[in-house]
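Quick one, probably user error.
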């Protein structure tokens, strides 16, 4: 017997969470697309297709729409394959020119006046965290002056350990003196992210908080950290890491090799 879109959305969400997926992933990746379905209409291939083609071509939203409609179609036993419409969007399209330099990060840290948001800004910069993860740490470790942060399980990709790149920023930014802004942390992670984004938009930060996560990733390459370890600390797979940062890995390795050659005393010299 056919069922409505809302019936299948409810069943799909229940199964999604029972399989250990996070509420944050549901809100950010799935609900944004599934809310476009007409709740009282029967879930059919045509209804799903209308959602897909209603999103911009070659966009992140189109790619997400194809992923989500394909997943609920398989779950509900509806014959629909959205993959031909996914387009060519790739997160690897992050433009290095949009990534803040270490100097710019320090300049903005010194400009910020709200102690809580200043601390959040600094811990994101030093450890490459997602914004909501800065609120979901084992703060006792910091108070005990342990420089390795422990990200708790109730975050987008679960618990993990992260190291500081640069470690000097721990003292520079007074990170052992934990200070949080007064926001409601019982809300879902996506809402915590929104609070952070709103604050830094209001103070006219010239880059996004998430851009400092990219800065951290590039910094680990400059330090020479194995990309597999960097991926683990960022809370994503090596495949995702390579897809986003591969060209920077290549450039970083080439640059270090070039600099080592320049230091050789017997290298060729120009006339």
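Nope, works fine. Designed sequence:
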């Amino acid at each position: 017997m056919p069922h409505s879109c809302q019936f299948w959305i409810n069943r799909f969400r229940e199964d999604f969470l029972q399989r250990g997926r996070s509420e944050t992933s549901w809100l950010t990746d799935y609900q944004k697309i599934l809310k476009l379905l007409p709740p009282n209409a029967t879930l059919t291939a045509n209804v799903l297709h209308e959602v897909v083609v209603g999103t911009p071509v070659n966009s992140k939203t189109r790619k997400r729409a194809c992923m989500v409609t394909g997943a609920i179609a398989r779950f509900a036993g509806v014959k629909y394959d959205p993959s031909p419409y996914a387009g060519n969007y790739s997160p690897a399209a992050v433009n290095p020119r949009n990534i803040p330099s270490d100097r710019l990060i320090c300049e903005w840290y010194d400009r910020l006046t709200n102690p809580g948001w200043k601390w959040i800004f600094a811990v994101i910069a030093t450890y490459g965290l997602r914004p909501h993860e800065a609120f979901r740490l084992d703060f006792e470790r910091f108070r005990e002056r342990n420089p390795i942060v422990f990200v708790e399980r109730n975050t987008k990709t679960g618990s993990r350990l992260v190291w500081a790149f640069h470690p000097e920023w721990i003292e520079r930014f007074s990170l052992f003196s934990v200070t949080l802004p007064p926001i409601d942390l019982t809300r879902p992670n996506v809402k915590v992210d929104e609070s952070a984004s709103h604050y830094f938009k209001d103070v006219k930060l010239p880059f996004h908080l998430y851009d400092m996560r990219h800065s951290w990733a590039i910094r680990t390459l400059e330090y020479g950290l194995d990309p597999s370890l960097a991926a683990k600390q960022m809370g994503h797979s090596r495949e995702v890491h390579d897809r986003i940062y591969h060209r920077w890995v290549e450039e970083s390795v080439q640059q270090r090799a070039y600099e080592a050659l320049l230091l050789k005393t017997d290298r060729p010299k120009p006339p």
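The longest strand covers residues 149-151.
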